[in-house]
Amino acid sequence: MIYNMTNGPSTLYSNLLRRNTNAELQNRLAQAEQELATGVQSDIYASLGASASEALALNAALDRDAAQVTANTLLGGRFDSMSRALGTIRESVQPAFDLAVANSTVGGSTGSGLQLQARVALDALIGQANATHAGLALFSGSASDTRSLTPWDQTSTSSGETPGAAIGALLAQGMGTGVEVTARIAEMDALFDNADGSFDALFDTGGGSAVTVNIGDGETLRLDVQANDPAFRDVLQGLAMLAATDAQEISDPSAYADWVGAATARLASGMEGLLDSQVRLDAGSARIDAANTRMQDRALVYSTRVSDLIGVDSYQAATEITALETQLQASYAVTARLSQLSFLNYMG
User: Fold this and answer.
1) Which end of the chain is more exposed for a tag (fewer CB within 10 A), N or C?
2) Helix, strand, coil distribution of the chain in percent, nearest 5
3) DSSP result, 292-323
């Protein structure tokens, strides 16, 4: 008898076919296990097709908003630090202001402490004005890498002299009469008016300008509270007038009242201006918080949509894994049985 040896595939081909089938099943099983572990489709673009562009756009928007929220958080921290610093300045200046008001005329019972109290407040103001947040000077505007104000007894790099020495020399021209006091007040006004940049030079403010920042969705915010603002200059002038000289040494009662009265008026104006600046900073901080809340809410919506697009149903993935494992085990079992077959088993 002659057997037909050409019916069906060869043993070698059958082995290769089963091997390829097993390899494909193993790959599909690995992908299914990955999808179950990550909750994301293993081949997003193949799965989504035309919808892949939507997923890309949403992910780009999520990344952009996340970066903006991070930047806003840093900016909001700076606004809050500036507001707290202004509050501390006002609290530090208030005792000197109260003392000046109480000693507006010669012979006040607490007049002897006025110069010392003004100096304490002056040092506190300059210290707070030179505070930093995340390495950036709070009140230097765009020149955030420079100190906002030169301390009273330190040399200004711009003017080459200390603020205390410069103002002391100005007052040394005479404070004994009403005419002299009026002249000194005018000179102090001219210095602190900063029309010619003399204040910036004396206190070495760095000359920074206001900064406009984007807080998301095209909304902008101005960071424009600086140490050379009129409010700062008014408070500094009032304190400098009281700290640079002992007002009790002005023998003319009218001249004394003019000097202390002018200093008190500058303090009152400056304190009001600092309060306005603090209110603006708090309002800016609230706008930053609102912008972050808006973007975080939007991120939740976008993330949900992205999850709907690229996510994998865990139950479906687990079911597919079970089916693939069963299929692979069956294939292995068939392969093992076939490998045990021998032509000799049928002879006999």
Assistant:
1) N
2) 70, 5, 25
3) HHHHHHHHHHHHHHHHHHHB--HHHHHHHHHH
Counting Cβ atoms within 10 Å, is residue 39 exposed (0-12), middle (13-18) or buried (19+)?
A: middle
Q: What is the pLDDT of residues 99-135, one digit of tens each?
A: 999 999 887 666 679 999 999 999 999 999 999 999 9
Model confidence at 53, pLDDT cuts 50, 70, 90, reads: confident
CA distances from 235 to 86, 169, 207, 268, 289 (A): 12, 20, 19, 8, 31
Closest-CA residue to 211 (of 79, 68, 69, 64): 79
Tokens representing 12 are 């070698």
**Among candidate residues 288, 199, 211, 196, the one with its CA nearest the CA of residue 236:** 199
Reduced to 3 states (helix: H, G, I; strand: E, B; else coil), residue 132 is strand
User: Rounded to an integer, what distance in angstroms lies between the CA atom of residue 22 and that of residue 105?
Assistant: 102
**Residue 7 falls in which region: left (phi positive, over 0), alpha (psi -120 to 50) or beta:** beta
**Cβ neighbours for 314, distance < 8 A, ≥ 6 positions apart:** 36, 39
The encoded tokens of residue 249 equal 């040494």
pLDDT band at 305 (very low <50, low <70, confident <90, very high): confident
By the 8 A CB rule, do 267 and 240 touch? Answer: no
Domains delineated in the chain: 82-289 (1.20.1330.10)
Residue 311 — φ and ψ, nearest 5°?
-75, 160
Query: What is the Cα–Cα distance from 202 to 179, expressed in whole angstroms?
Result: 26
Which backbone phi and psi does 10 adopt, to 5 degrees?
-70, 160
| Measured distance CA(166)–CA(204) in Å, rounded | 13
- Within 8 A by CB and 6+ apart from 143, the residues are 137, 206, 207, 208
Question: How would you classify the pairing of strands 132-133 and 219-223?
Answer: unpaired
Distance CA(175)–CA(143), nearest Å, equals: 37
Q: Are 115 and 243 in contact (CB under 8 A)?
A: yes
